[in-house]
Design goal:
The protein is an alpha+beta fold. It contains three helices and five strands; from the N terminus they run αββαβββα. The protein has a five-stranded mixed beta sheet. A hairpin with a 6-residue loop joins strand 3 and strand 4. The longest helix has 16 residues. 29% of the residues are buried.
């Protein structure tokens, strides 16, 4: 699966879990760590956790697992590394702080 297809699937799965303020950023020209960043928000720490778990589970069902997941237990800012796609799921007040 190409990075763009993976980005679209991850975005779709995040939106199915009611993520909002979703932004896709193509970073392949300015970064060697990924082709795309997905940034989205949840309205509570539980929703942030639910979005991240949904991404992990849905792509896992397709045989794709993240290389790393950070921040899932706190639910304030979850970083998911899918190699060529990096996903940031923020609790909205934390996203505003780092905006």
């Amino acid at each position: 699966m190409g990075s763009w297809e993976k980005t679209l699937l991850l975005s779709q799965f995040a939106l199915e879990k009611k993520a909002y303020d979703l932004v896709l950023i193509e970073v392949r020209e300015v970064s060697s760590i990924a082709d795309y960043f997905i940034i989205c928000s949840g309205r509570s720490d539980r929703q942030v956790q639910s979005i991240a778990r949904g991404l992990d589970e849905n792509l896992g069902n397709m045989g794709i697992s993240p290389l790393s997941i950070e921040g899932l237990t706190r639910g304030q800012w979850v970083l998911m590394d899918f190699s060529d796609v990096i996903v940031h799921v923020f609790y909205q007040p934390v996203r505003e702080f780092y905006d």
